[in-house]
Amino acid sequence: MLRSKKSLIVPTIRLPTNNGPTSRIWPTSYQLQKFRNQERRIQFCEWYVQQVKKDDLFPSRILWTDKAIFTRYDVVKVQSNYVWVSPYEDPRAVLEKCSQRDFSCNVWMGIYNDMLIGPYFLPEHLTARSFLNFLSNDLTIALEDVPLLSRQHMWIQLNGFSAYSGKQVQQWLNEHYPKRWIGRESPISWPPKSQDLTPLDFYLWSTMKKKVYRTKVKSRDELMQRIINAAEEIKQNRQEILEMTNSILKRCTACIDVGGRYNQM
């Protein structure tokens, strides 16, 4: 497991009492979880920075992956028991739109160095079994354009979605990416609530959203075709994709500097 060189000190608040001495108020469970998340973010960022120091090509070796739900109106990220939206959106408005949706697509995509991988359309209700099927069959096809030598040294990153934590999924990852995968149950743990550290969250989904929803979507087939068209359009701008991949080092450094807090760049 990752260990941070710096351990966050959980603060306490000192308040004066009637008799003069101060009393301590310990943080709430929510605050403690927030501090733990910040520490995990620091641990990951310190690890990433060290990897780049040892190998300046390391940023080009990671396949960053994610999935999102494209509804009739918007892009929604559902992870475990919470809904993710961008910092600029009203979660209540997004949830209201979700409840009204007539159709949707569960979309997987990846970013590898200067390449955009996908889209692949997943089952509506993704389970560990169906995700294992995707890894075993579709991922190999998705990576056909990546040179064999690059694939042999490739890392893969997954977030904390519950379907990624199945025992058979972990066994597959350990077999095909031995000591080269980042995720919820990996020795290299992916920190929760770290949308600012993966290019799919801080770049791809918002870019896709602008292209897919230029005009009203009328059917699921039309939505799928727009997603494919948007991805093909983005794939042409490999320099921009590369800049996003390379920016992760700067983002990790900034995260360490602010004590693991979410960093909007």
Q: Round the Cα radius of gyration to an integer and report it.
A: 20 Å
- State the end-to-end CA separation: 28 Å
**Sheet with the most strands, sense and barrel status:** 8 strands, mixed
Helix content: 40-55%
Strand portion, in percent?
15-25%
Report the mean per-residue pLDDT as an integer: 85
Structural class: alpha/beta
Query: How many helices does DSSP assign?
Result: 8
Counted beta strands: 10
Write down the CATH class. Answer: Alpha Beta
User: What do we call the CATH homologous superfamily?
Assistant: Ribonuclease H-like superfamily/Ribonuclease H
Number of domains: 1
CATH topology: Nucleotidyltransferase, domain 5
State the low-pLDDT regions, or none.
80-85
Along the chain, the helix and strand elements come as EEHEEEHEEHHEHEEHHH
Summarize the structure.
This protein has one domain (55-258): Ribonuclease H-like superfamily/Ribonuclease H (Nucleotidyltransferase, domain 5, 2-Layer Sandwich), CATH 3.30.420.10. The chain is 44% helix and 19% strand. It is built from 8 helices and 10 strands.
Task: From the structure above, extract its key features.
19% strand, two-stranded antiparallel ribbon, Nucleotidyltransferase, domain 5, 8-stranded mixed β-sheet, alpha/beta, 265 residues, 8 helices, single chain, RNaseH_sf
Explain the overall architecture.
With 265 residues, the chain is an alpha/beta fold. It has one domain: Ribonuclease H-like superfamily/Ribonuclease H (Nucleotidyltransferase, domain 5, 2-Layer Sandwich). The protein has 8 helices and 10 strands. Strands 3, 4, 5, 6, 7, 8, 9 and 10 form an 8-stranded mixed sheet that branches. Helix 1 packs across helix 8, helix 3 packs parallel to helix 5 and helix 6 packs across helix 7. The longest helix has 26 residues. About 2% of the residues have low confidence. One of its GO terms (molecular function) is nucleic acid binding. InterPro entries: RNaseH_sf.
